[in-house]
Design goal:
The complex is a heterodimer of chains A (298) and B (311). Chain A has 298 residues and is mainly α. Helices cover 75% and strands 0% of the residues of chain A. Chain A has a single domain, classed as MetI-like fold. In chain B, a hairpin with an 8-residue loop joins strand 1 and strand 2. Chain B starts with a helix and ends with a helix. Classes of the chains: A mainly alpha (298), B mainly alpha (311).
Chain lengths: 298, 311
Amino acid sequence: MSAATVTDSAAPGGRTRRPGQSAARTILVTAILLLVALYFLVPVYWVVVAATKTTEDLFATNGFWFGQTFALFANVREVVAYDGGIFLRWFANSVLYSGVGALLATYFAAAGGYALSRYQFRGRNIVFGTILGGVLVPGTATALPMFLLFSELGLANTYWSVLIPSVVSPFGLFLCRIYADASVSPSLLEAARLDGASELRIFHTVGLRILTPALVTVFLFQLVGIWNNYFLPLVMLADQDLYPITLGLNNWRSQTDRLPEFYELTTGGVLLSVIPLAIAMIVLQRFWRGGLTEGAVK
Amino acid sequence: MSATEQSSAPAATSGRRRRSSQLTAAPWLLLAPFLLFFVLTFVLPILVAVGQSFTRVTRSGVFGEQGVTSEFAWFANYAQALENGNFIDSIFRMLLFGVVQVTVMIALSTVLALLLESASARWPGFFRAVYFLPYGIPGVIATILWSFLYVPGLSPVIDAAEVVGIELDFLGAGTVLWSIANIVTWTYAGYNMMIIVAQLKAIPTEVYEAAEVDGAGPLRVAASIQLPLIRPALVLTTVFSIIGTLQLFAEPQVLSTVAPDVDSEYTPNLSAYTTAFAYNDYNVAAAQAVLIALVAFALSFLFLRLTNRRS
C-alpha cells in the first residue's frame, strides 16, 4: 500500500528536487509527521498496555509500560464471558445496525440521487432543496422528537428505533447526485431506452454500476457514522440487550468508581472494539479518497 | 404526472406515451424509499419538535390523574428555555469552544494535508492511515480512552509531568473544556485532512509546473496556489465542524463522571437531554432542540456569507 501511495503523491507534477536542500527538508517534514503520529497513537497504545494488566498493576505501574503479570488473555476471557457474553451481543448489535443500516442507506441514496440527477420533473428542485436542508440539521436535534414520535408508534426501545433512522443519508444522496451528474451520460441512458429496458432496470444495471465508486464512499461513511452513533441509541434504547457497543462500554465504564474490576472489563472491551475498526480503516483507506470529496467540495 | 401526459398525448403514438408516462413515474419510484424514511426521520420529527415547542401540557390532579390538557402556548417554552441561565451559558461556552477548537483543528488538518502532499514527506500512506484512524473510534470510546489519560492516579501523563515538577490537572474548572477540545480534535483532524487531501489531489499538475517555471518554493506554492484552490474544502469542513460543535454531547457526558465541573447542562445538547429525560419536560426540551438547530443554521450561514464576501 505504502509503495503505491508514495509514488502517486510524491512530487506532484514531477517537480525536480535540489539534492542537499531536499534531504534536509525530508528529514524535517518526516520528523514533524512522526511527532503528530505519536499524538494520534498514544491513547491507543495506552489501552493496548492497560488491557494486559491486572487492576492492581493498572494503578501501581507506569501506564506506558507493561506490568509484572501479563493478564491480557485472562482479561479478554473475562470481557467475553461477563454477564453471559453480553459484550459479544453488543458487538453483534453494532454490526447489525451499521451493516444493514449502511447497506440500505446507500441503496436509497443512490436511487434518489440518480433520480434527481438524471430526470427532469416537477418538484425536483424543491425535493432536492429540502433534502439538502437535512444535511445541515443537527442529528441530535431530531433525536429527541424522533423518540417522542417513535414512542407513539410503539417503536421506541426496539431494533427498529435505531435501524430506521440509520437508513437515511441526506449527505449520501447529495454525493450520489453530484457523482451521477458528472459520470452517468444521458446518451448512455438513451441507448438503454432504445434497447427497450425499463427505467428501473436501467438504474439497476447501468446506473448502479457507474455509481459504484461513490457508493463505496457513501457506504463507508454511513457505516462509520452509525457505528459511532451514541446519542440516538441512548435516547431510544432502554433494554441492555439492544445496546450497540458504544452504549454498552460506557455502561461498564460508569461502574468503575464503585467496582474497580470494571476497569479491566472496560479497557479490554475498548481494545477489542478498536481492533476491527483499526484494521478496517487501514485496509479500506484507499476507498475513502475517490468519489467522496471530489464532488462534495465543488 | 397528468400534465406531461396531456401535452405529449396528441401527437404521440401509444409507445411514446407509455415511454413518457414511465419517464414521469420513474424518478418518483426511485425517490420513494428515500423520501419515505426522510419524512419519517427528518420532516416529521422536525414538525413534532416545532409543534411540541409551542404546546403547553397541563396535568390536573396531583399525579395528573384527572386528565392532561394541551394548549397552544405561543413562545412560553422558548421564553422558559432562554430564561435558563445555564442553557445560555452552555451556548456561549460552545461558541468559545468552537472559535478555538475548530480553528486549531482545521489549521492542523490543513498543515498535515499540505505536508503529506508535499514532495518531502516519506511514507505518506502510513501517516495518512494513522491520522485517519481515530475517526473510526466512536466519540464515547475516544473519551473513555482519553479519560484514562486525564484521571489522576491512572494517567501516565500526569505521573510523568510530576517527575519534572509540573502539576497537571486535565479535569479542573478552567481546563476541562480544552481537554474535551483535545478529544474532538484527535477524533476529527484526520477526517478533515482526508477531505483536504482529496481536493489537493484534484489540482492539475500544470499549475505546479507553471509555479516551478516561475521559481516558486514550496511555501510560496502552498500560500499562493494550494491554499486558494482548496478553499471549498476548508469551507465545507469548517461548516460541518461548526454544526458538530453545537451538537457536542458524548464527550462531556462521559467526562461528567470524572470531572465535577461538567454538569448536566454543560453543552446545549446535554441541557436539552436533561430537560427531556431528567425533568420530563419534553416541550421545553423541544424548544431547546429548535433553538440549537437555529443557532447552528445561523452560524453556518454567517460563515458562508463571510467567506463568500471575501472571495
